[in-house]
Amino acid sequence: MRDVIVIGKGPAGITAAVYMKRAGLDVMVVGKGYGALEKSEKIENYYGFENPISGTELIEKGINQAKNLGIEVLADEVIGISQNDGFAVKATTETYKSKALLLATGKTRTTVNIKGFEKLKGKGISFCAVCDGFFYRDKKLAVIGNGEYAAEELSELLRHTKDITLFTNGLPLKTRNIPSNITIVYEPVSEILGEDSVTGIISDGKQYDIDGIFVAIGTASAIDFAIKMGVILDGTDIKVDNNYMTNIEGLYAAGDAIGGFLQISKAVSDGAHASKSIIKNLKHNESKELIKEE
Amino acid sequence: MALKITKNNFEQEVIQSDVPVLLDFWAPWCGPCRMVGPIVDELSTELEGKAKVGKINVDEEQELAASFKVMSIPTLAVIKDGKIMSIEVGARGKEDLKQMLGV
């Protein structure tokens, strides 16, 4: 079991990893994509760069900085997290375990602009298959998504019902892990039907009778993981205390995921502060264990 | 500790309660519910006399869950004078729950 896994390889995650590695912790960083910075062509307000730098270049420099210090930076997508004697982080290739976990995936939760979506959230529209699949035994379900995360949610739902349709909502399918008997609708979803609860989906002018919808678009964000773990949120921000810890012992968050000023300088600061708390917490627990052993 | 609410004591403990009631719809297999559990237990002690806190196991009380149209857990609901005042889906902190209860 590792000491810490950091999910997200942006400024908050890498900064935290660097501090933790230098403090002697066994740390691994895992993440896919470059998040919000990928879209920044020119960064001119970050300390120490006399010429503008692109977001991609800055992120790559950060990753190389971490690798040069001997930190394992894994380019893989995290599709699930669970807690049971530490944390288990399920990536597409393997599951990794750690004592502490830092969520630093940014704020990439895809907004869904579908008619009826806001109205029916929590009334048949769910973000957590493992929490809510139970309510849909042998019912007709839809998963909206197009990647590994959608495949993971779909496989969880198959325990409850066989009648599942995958709606990619106009996006290309980016997973090979959808069972062949699952119907896939590639056209955009134009409307979700229902008054008190979901009754159907309209896509490309065609109506599908649906009892429940599970949303798993693109890659899972910190908020998606937070919902599944019972982390308390403030709107779409993860709530943390002064030590950057969530309401779950050992689970930390930093960077854009916790909201506030969405800037690189703030993410770097968050990462540094979170790492300080994690280092303190893990070393404290370690010394407690040593005392026990003696 | 929060009260265990079943369809047998629902009328007496919830509908006829003199104080607002917070209901936590949960299940043993639901990860996020396990985080909410201790929070509502603490609240039940803290708010004694001002509010009541109950837990409904959706596995055992499917009728009650269906009557509240619960399709996602954790779901937290506040009932005052026999009427549903608010229903929130997802984990909530103590302060949010107090606000829902109006205490």
> What is the fourth-level CATH superfamily of the largest domain in chain A?
FAD/NAD(P)-binding domain
Rounded to the nearest angstrom, the radius of gyration of chain B is: 12 Å
CATH topology of the largest domain in chain A: FAD/NAD(P)-binding domain
State the major sheet of chain A. 7 strands, mixed
Computed structural class of chain B: alpha/beta
What do these coordinates show?
The complex is a heterodimer of chains A (294) and B (103). Chain A is α/β, with parallel strands linked by helices and 294 residues long. Chain A has seven helices and 17 strands. In chain A, the strands form four sheets. In chain A, strands 1, 2, 3, 4, 5, 6 and 17 form a seven-stranded mixed beta sheet that branches. Chain A has a five-stranded parallel beta sheet with strand order 7-14-8-9-10, with helices on one face. The radius of gyration of chain A is 20 Å and the shape is globular. Chain B has a single domain (3-101), classed as Glutaredoxin. Chain B is 35% helix and 26% strand. Chain B has helices at 10-15, 31-46, 62-67, 94-101; strands spanning 3-4, 21-26, 52-57, 75-80, 83-89. A five-stranded mixed beta sheet of chain B has the order 1-3-2-4-5. The mean pLDDT of chain B is 94. At the A-B interface, helix 4 and helix 6 of A face helix 2 of B.
Please name the defining characteristics of this protein.
heterodimer, A: 294 residues, alpha/beta, FAD/NAD(P)-binding domain, 2 domains, globular, B: alpha/beta, Glutaredoxin, 5 strands, 35% helix
Quick synopsis:
Chain A is of the alpha/beta class.
Topology of this structure?
The complex is a heterodimer of chains A (294) and B (103).
Chain A: E1 2-7, H1 11-22, E2 27-30, H2 55-68, E3 72-74, E4 78-83, E5 87-91, E6 95-103, H3 117-120, E7 125-126, H4 129-132, E8 141-145, H5 148-157, E9 164-167, E10 183-185, E11 189-194, E12 198-203, E13 206-209, E14 212-216, H6 222-229, E15 233-234, E16 237-238, E17 251-253, H7 264-293
Parallel strand pairs in A: 1-2, 1-6, 2-3, 6-17, 7-14, 8-9, 8-14, 9-10
Antiparallel strand pairs in A: 4-5, 5-6, 11-12, 12-13, 15-16
Chain B: E1 3-4, H1 10-15, E2 21-26, H2 31-46, E3 52-57, H3 62-67, E4 75-80, E5 83-89, H4 94-101
Parallel strand pairs in B: 1-3, 2-3
Antiparallel strand pairs in B: 2-4, 4-5
